[in-house]
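Changelog excerpt

This revision adds worked examples to the README so contributors can see how folded entries look when concatenated. The first example is reproduced verbatim below.
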Amino acid sequence: MQDQPFPYVSLELLEALQEHFPDRSPDLRWSDREVWFKAGQCAVVRFLKGKFDEQNENILKRPL
């Protein structure tokens, strides 16, 4: 799967995901499963933020 380029991550998408799935400390009232689930959400947003940063490092890699 490394041979295929990753789809472009837009700033609008990234901002919307960060708003819907904020990276925050767990609440003591959350169950273990809820903590794991929210941690997974944040991990995906962090991954996409990394791809966004990577894609915007070099303007020649940006789609038209």
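The second example, added in the same revision:
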Amino acid sequence: MVNLDIQHSDSYKIICGVDEAGRGPLAGPVYAACVILDKNYHIAGLNDSKKLGALKRSMLAMAIKQYAKAWAVSSASVEEIDQMNILQASLLAMKRAVEGLSCIPDQVLVDGKQCPDVPYPVQAIVRGDSLMPEISAASILAKTERDIEMLRLHIDFPHYGFDLHKGYPTPKHLAALQQYGPSKIHRKSFAPVSSLIFNH
């Protein structure tokens, strides 16, 4: 049973929340972020990034970067996703994010069921992005940073509509894949992409 009051424990004074964004898309890297909130500054409105609109996420991301005690964002590339699978690539991105922190956490709390290999006490919490503010903040940073990257990739690959769907398998995206074939930033290990590779 998860102790949801763990952030108040005397044993763990510096809590780091970790989450990822972009496991489901057919294209682009997977991102992860970690956040250590400043207990002296409350950021109102933190929640699972999927429950927030884009404008609200962006505003919260700016507040997190300004007022958090520490934060870091990292990613794993399309090549790494295809080489090791999306779960392991997500864990790698999480590990890189935690390693990028400017201070050492006493406890790492991760959204989901799997934990990255980090040299700190670590605990996975299902639906942690809705339950723990540190994980919510990490969820928001991971999502907003990945969206920025997909907007940048849209400039290089405008045919696929990454500015709209961010690489997720929407009807528009699947139709573009059928018409143009996979690009170099598509995940070749994902079924909708792999089935088209030899047809173009």
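Reviewer comment on example two: Confidence is low (pLDDT under 50) at residues 1-11. Strands lie at 15-21, 30-36, 70-76, 107-111, 122-125.
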